[in-house]
């Protein structure tokens, strides 16, 4: 059973992957799909939103007679990722307590 992922978490996944290297859209989609089910039709609006928020920038590289658009995380994107990571840690801790996890040792 797959649990749906929120917009904020999907943004965080994309930004986290981009901290390791720049990706073009299809390759980035493939990377995200290794962790959670997401379609290309979902990913491209995410990428446009991240660019609009200045969390990523784009550049084109020629490949086999065509251009590939690569995405690169910005300093603002790195700050946003830290916020998402903190939100996730707080959320995860709360859910672990509710579900009987061992987050707080009880």
UniProtKB/TrEMBL annotation:
InterPro entries: Metal_resp_DNA-bind_regulator, Tscrpt_reg_PadR_N, WH-like_DNA-bd_sf, WH_DNA-bd_sf. Residues 14-83 form the Transcription regulator PadR N-terminal domain. This is PadR family transcriptional regulator, regulatory protein PadR.
């Amino acid at each position: 059973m797959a649990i749906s992922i929120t917009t904020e978490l999907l943004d965080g996944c994309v930004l986290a992957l981009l901290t390791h290297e720049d990706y073009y859209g299809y390759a980035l989609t493939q990377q995200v799909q290794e962790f959670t089910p997401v379609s290309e039709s979902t990913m491209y609006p995410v990428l446009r939103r991240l660019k609009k928020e200045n969390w990523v920038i784009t550049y084109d590289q020629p490949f086999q007679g065509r251009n590939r658009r690569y995405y690169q995380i910005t300093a603002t994107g790195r700050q946003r990722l830290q916020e998402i990571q903190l939100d996730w840690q707080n959320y995860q801790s709360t859910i672990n307590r509710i579900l009987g996890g061992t987050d707080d040792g009880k």
